[in-house]
Amino acid sequence: MSSDHHQKAPRHHHVSKKMKALAKKSEESKHLRCSDCQRKISQKNLFRVSRYCVDCTSTSRMTIVCLECCVNYHNGHELLTEDSLHHNQLRTLTDLRKLRTKILDTSEEFDSRCEDIRSSGMEICGSLMAEKQTLLTYTLASIDDVIRRIESAPILFPPVLRTIKDEQSHNFGMLEKLGVQLEKSLISRKNTKPTSLTFIENMNESDLGCPVQSKGAGPSLNRSLSIRQSRVSLRGDRDDSLFHESIASLVRLMHQHPMCLQLDFHHSTVSSKDTVEQRKQKIMSCAHAATCMLEMDTQVSMLPIFADVLLNCFYQLNRLSKNKFVGDDKKAFRRVDIWKQVQTSYTELFGITAKHFPSHHPERVDILDDLAYLCHLYSDVADQGTVTICLIEAARARASDPTGLSEIEQQRTQERLELIDEHLTECRRLQKLLELRKTSKTKRRGGLKRLFGGCFMPQERVNESLVY
Length: 468
Description:
The protein contains 16 helices and 5 strands. This is DUF7758 domain-containing protein.
């Protein structure tokens, strides 16, 4: 009997501290908190008692502020209600659908240009056709995916929507750039290929070991436009295939350069098994080697490949250096060190580009767009001098006479300049926000020191201050 009673006795389970912490965290996850006063805000009454502050948000995280803090700390800021956020989301959907229509129209125009070229007895580069089809397939899949995400999401905040629009605009810009090349081939003489088409065929023939003989003189300098394989933002953060493809192309075309062996070595050692620091060091070595290969007598047709390599390198380095944790390794590259390499690389690249192209030329504006894009990515360490140079170059491009450019080239330049303005505006906004945060932290620490300083005064000073 006693044994049965012993078996039926209730067991007292001990709840560990870790389980209690998880339970508390799960309970608190039902509520959001004001970013200033940390007051709990129920999700049911989220936008009745709070607002979303555009000016004080630098990431895609949901940053909300209660109405009291809106009055005390966010007076004059752009505060959005739930209706405003939904309206912004619907407007982004409309813009993306219009952009998708433009993508299809550009693809149809590309195909019609191909038929015109074939009917005139000219040949089309096979790699250009393959690149167009690959880019079109990926662009349509990407824009359809983000449209579905936006339609199914309850609320997406402005930073997320802005990033999505920028990525899709770069996709469309690349596809439009391929169409520009076909437009140029139509106005060229028969059996005379534009520089970019000849350049791609030379790259393909170099893989087979067959030299290509030019049948005629190349076109004028202002008709030489770059063909980028793709923008870095076309693919996900974990996909580094563009980085490998761009360096492989540069190694194939510049194999006679003394620094090419070093670039090929560093590139070949990059492995998926590397730690973050090892990968950063190897990619930094690739960027340094590619910069050393830039010379004032570098061929104009090679500049797009160099620009592609540098952009992909620094995009990967930005992704790897986003983690704020800094280890004990003193040799680890910080974001400041990466930005110094950005300055060095683009000083060389932009100097060569400025030697060959005027301010308004799309080739020069493209590289300026890359630099402005990097200023946006590295806004936490970007120096004011580089941002100011980008602003001056953009203003110079607008003020210069676009004589010699076709309407398509002028439109493309104008679109790039608008993207440059967006990147630089966002960079300066993030820098001001970072400075504001540093100032507020300093004031809070000073206030705490004054508040509690008297409690920790040395005994000698306390005795001296006593008045009898």
